Every structure is written in C-alpha cells, then in structure tokens.
UniProtKB/TrEMBL annotation:
The protein's name: Scytonemin biosynthesis protein ScyA
Recorded family membership: Belongs to the TPP enzyme family.
Thiamine pyrophosphate enzyme TPP-binding domain span: 446-589
One of the record's GO cellular component terms: acetolactate synthase complex
Organism: Dendronalium phyllosphericum CENA369
Domain Thiamine pyrophosphate enzyme central: start-end pairs: 259-387
Domain of life where this protein originates: Bacteria
Xref: PANTHER family: ACETOLACTATE SYNTHASE CATALYTIC SUBUNIT, MITOCHONDRIAL, THIAMINE PYROPHOSPHATE ENZYMES
Gene: scyA
One GO MF term: acetolactate synthase activity
Keyword Manganese: no
SUPFAM superfamilies: DHS-like NAD/FAD-binding domain, Thiamin diphosphate-binding fold (THDP-binding)
Record InterPro entries: DHS-like_NAD/FAD-binding_dom (IPR029035), THDP-binding (IPR029061), Thiamin_PyroP_enz_cen_dom (IPR012000), Thiamin_PyroP_enz_TPP-bd_dom (IPR012001), TPP_enz (IPR045229), TPP_enzyme_TPP-bd (IPR011766)
One record GO biological process: L-valine biosynthetic process
Amino acid sequence: MSQNYTGSNPSFLTEPYKELPLHNYVEPISDNSLELDKVENSKEIRSSSVDETASTLSVADAIAQMLANLGVEYAFGVAGGAMASVWGALSNSTIEVLNFRHEAGAAFAASEAYFTSGRPSVVFTTAGPGITNSLTGLFAARGEGAKVILLSACTSAPQRGRWAIQETSTYTLPSGGIFTSGMLFNYAVTIESAAQLPQIFRKLALGLAQPGGFVAHLSIPTGVQTSLVEDISLPQLDVAPFRLTPAKEAIAKSVELLSAGSFAIWVGFGARDAADEIRQLAEKTGAAVMCSPRAKGIFPEDHPQFVGVTGLGGHASVLTYMEQQPPLRTLVLGTRLGEPTSFWSLAMVPKGGFIHVDIDPEVPGVAYPSAETFPIQSDIKAYVQELLQQLPDAPPRSTPLLLPCPERKEIAPDLDIDYPVRPEVLMAAIQKIIVEGSDAVVMAECGNSFTWSTHLLQFSQANRYRVSTGVGAMGHTVTGVLGAALARNGKAVAVVGDGAMLMNNEISTAVKYKIPAIWIVLNDARYNMCHQGMKVLGLTGADATIPPTNFAMIARAMGAEALGVVRESDIEAALEQAIASTVPFVIDVVIDPDRPAPSGARNKSLAAQGIKSSALKNPAKPVSFPAI
C-alpha cells in the first residue's frame, strides 16, 4: 500500500535524512532486536540517559512518558480493567486522554487527528474485544497512511490458557497479524519486561520518522504494566525525519520524457504537502491537472488548468480531456491509481504511459500493469522542486489553451418541490456556507455522501477535504470528525449518511469534551448507494431500507444542539446556526432518496468485475467519471 507522507512532524524530527528505502519494522512477538544495521544511510541516532525517576517509574508511566517525548498529544480509546494502569498513566501525563464509546471510533478519530496535526496519535484498548473492536479503524489508518500507536492490554503469563476474563493470548486470538508485524501493523511487540523499553522506544522513533504511514501495536500484559523500571536508562531520542529525494538520473529521465510532448498531472493525496510546487509546475508547463478524490483542493478546483476529479464521484470532464486532447504522458504524483481513483479505465492510459512518483516503490505499475511506466521513488515535494529547476518552460502559445472543466450546474430553488431536500441543493448550500463561508474541514462518509460531496463540492486549498478510499468503512467520518476538530481546535464538518450515523457515532463523546464537530446527515431511510446500485445493476429482492430516524431528537437527547431540516428553504439558516455554535451540532436533513447519486462508474466497475444482470445489456450512461 502507498503510505503517503504529511509535511508536519513531531518537534523532535528536525533534520533531513539521506535517501533510504522504506522499511517495515518486522518483529516476531518474542524478538526485540533493534537491527539498526538494516537502516541504510541514516544519520546517527543520538540518545542520552534520563535517570532522575527511573527507579520509581512503572512500565505504564514510562510508556506514557516515551509517547509524550515522541510528540503524541492525544490518546483515544475505551478503558477496561486489564489496562487500568496504562489508562491511569496516560491520564496523568501531558497527553490529553479522550474516552470514546467504541474502539473503532477511537481509531478513526486518532487517524484523522494525525492528518490534521501531523503528530502521531495513540489508541488505547483493553483486552479481548477492546483489541478486536479497534482493528477496522487501525486497518484504515494503515491504508490511509496515518501514524498511530495502539496500546492494548493482554493477559499476564501466569493466567494464560486458564480462561481469564477477556483472555487475550495465543489461546484465544491468533498472534499472527495482531501481535506481530505484517499487513496490519508496521511494528508490533508484546512487552514482557521493562528491559525491552529502550529498544521499543528507538523502533517507534525510527518508524515515526520514516516517510509514509506507521501503525504500531504495543501489547502490555496487565501484570507488567505496574512493574517498576529499575536500573534502566530511558533514552531521549533526537531522530531526524527520513526524506526520500529523487536520484539525479530519475530527474534527467523525467525531463526527457516530459519534454517529448504534452503531459497531464494526476495528483494524489500523497502530494498534499507539495501544493505550491505542483501549481508552479502546471503553470510553467501548461499541463492539465486532475486529482484523486482524496486529493481535492491540492490543486485549486477553480483553476483553468484543472480538468476534474477522477474515480468515484468524479467528473466526466476528465474523460472528455483524455479523448479530445490526449496527453502523450501522465505524471502521477502520490496516488496508487486504485479502483476508487481510476476504476482501472484504459481510457486513462496515455500513449506514452506514466511517470509515476511515490514514496512506496511497490506502487508504480500495479494499477495498470500493462501500461508503460517509469517508476520513481521519492517524496513528492522534493521531486517537484527538483523538476521545476530542470524542466524548461513550455513554449508560448498563440492562442490560450482551452481545457474542459467540471460542469457546474446551478440548482435553482423550486417552491413546488421544497420538500424533501434535493441533495444537489444541500451541496450547493454547504459550498456557500461551509466551504466558502468558513475555514472548516469538510469530511465525507463512504456511500452516497462520498459521491455527492466529491462530485459537487469545490475546494481551492489543500487539507480542507477528507475522504477515505482505501478501506471505505462506514463510521470512519462520523467518528473521525472528532479527531479532526480536536486537533485543529476548530470546526470540522462530517457529511454522512443515516446508515453510518446509526452504525457508530460519537456525539456523546463530542458533548463530553465540548468538541465543535458538525454532522450533516443525509437522511433518506436507506443504505442508498446499495439501494440505487442494485437497481442499476438489475438485481432485485434485496432490502436496503432503514426505519425513519429522527437524528436531531437523538442528538439533543445526548446533549448536543440539533436541527431537523425538511425543506430546501431552511438549509442555509441551519448551516449558519451550526457554524456559529460552539458545541457539537447535528443537522438532520431529509433528502429525496430517488435522486440518482453520481456513482454510475462504480456500478460499471462492479459489472466489469463479474456482477452481471440482463439490465446491463443497455446500461444508462453513468453520470460520473469515467463515462464508458
């Protein structure tokens, strides 16, 4: 998976590292060797002892101190008896502890806090179900490229295999994948002794310093948590961030390929700290720019060279560009080009292929294995900065280049259909009041909330729009919005469906900690992406309806402010009231369930993967990218 890098770093990450390959810190549950010789070209890790309180620290206290030294500011979780000592140590440290209602929500919030602040976050859980409940959120964190550390409790050695309460051991849970490094965790270890802590601290510091995401798991037996750290020097580490810079040969080859003809730029989430450089590159060369759903706003969507968003909820203008003004090559910056971004459409493959830049060397060429691809492993910002120095300006044009751009249809108010609310009208109001009228971060839940928001909202700044495409878990945004609002100390707005809101929300948590999150609920009494998708695919008999729910009433019962909106004429006033509020706020909008969401390309992709029906013999033209 591509693990994309944000430019912010904890305070101890201050100096650039030389170029080096990415590493997973693979460690069996019983192996705690540091293996620093495998980290090539890195600067020396400098450490000094901290002995003042070493003899009085418990393991739990030492872990809390280490995490604070690594730049952690927030810990999200659900407590329990098995991890009471760790919970207490975190609560008495400089780390702010937030007690959530479900571990998955805590993990989603931790991930979004990282993307907002650039600082690693902690998730804490008790044994047994505490761990397993958190796994979906941690899986999403790994896929999104977040830096998150899970602290969990496990059963102490003398009680293992004896059916302890919520027993967590190899007798009850598979060790592979949960307690060992692999696809879920970059680094995982069970702490059986305080003597392991210096090594673990160093490995965490190295992992957090590397580009891309880093998700770690420290499993701490209940009995070990209270054991004392005696005669052990806890290090203070000054680890510089690793920065992958492009090789000179890669830049020279890029200049050669890009100078051979027109090219387009395909921007991904991994390029989010290179927004200024990408704009300079586009304007220097006249290249058309498109972006993945996660990359909205990195290149201004109102720029004349922007041709649209690709993939799920994207714009048909992209395909128009590829058909009518095809580039010779496409420069891909920080995106995996996976199904949500490309639907693997061959129409997106230019004649000369791709120049694909990513920090993960395993990404280029995977989505389009048959396309000619020149791979470059590099930090996006460093690559574009160097390319700007070497690439010549495009020759002046006698006439301005006219590129297709996303169509922006004005949805006029219609008093005859004031109820229920058309989703297009709701999105226009969100654009006006939230996007243009405030500095709030906007987040969209998976499903039709994703496609409506991605297709219709327009951003001119990076880091103001967040969607999850790797896992696409329901509940990511309805809970993650707390992490974003907390970390930015300001408004974050979640555009969500009623299904996700019923599955896993954290309104109660927001009320407890006075977090100014806003939920805008698209209430249509359906899992409507499934309902509409089944209809388009011609598959009948499946039931995707939900009993009507009054989310405003539920929110008020939890202590939040809330409004129910059933008429289009009331939307803007409700949004203005929510933005002005200083407490958690829910806007429950009854929307027209029969308005077709811009997700036709998703149905096409499903059909191509084997979902067949007679209805697909003459499918209707999809309303989103790519129109094939």
